[in-house]
Amino acid sequence: MSMAAPAQTSKTGYDVPRPIGKCAVSGRDIPPGEKFVAAIRETPMGLERLDVSLDCWQTFDRANLLGFWQTTMPRPEEKKKLFVDDQVLCDLFERLADVTEQAKVNFRFVLGLILMRKRLIVYETTRHDAGRDVWVVRMKGKEQRLDLTDPKLNEQEMTEVSQQLGQILNEEL
After folding, report:
1. Is the pTM value of this prediction over 0.90?
2. Stretch 98-126: mean pLDDT, rounded?
């Protein structure tokens, strides 16, 4: 029996729920304070969050995961905190390099802005390509240049994508 937090539907397709407290492999409860691995996988319905106990992680099928990180099951009274480390965010940014779907382009752009704010992405220049502004960036410490399309988000779109990222990160952006 597989336990996963179902994907939610939204305009952006990036609603990822908080931990449900059950191992996606064994179905056993993961009590507050216990370490586990949180994973995000893309499905036809959007992103799916899977929480896997450490004892099941080695046998867990990691195919098609966008990212994963080790964390601790929060206590219900705990304040939300950042569950994703910077390397997971950088990996996610790089994996989304070839996306063309508008919601994913928007998501990647806001993620790129966050990584720039954290000084993990370095802005190089801007070029104009087929009527769009494309920022040329590179990951800190790397030479490879990456394109970051500026989708010209309005305030509402920026807020929506930021909320989606906040749900993934479990923090307010």
Report:
1. no
2. 90
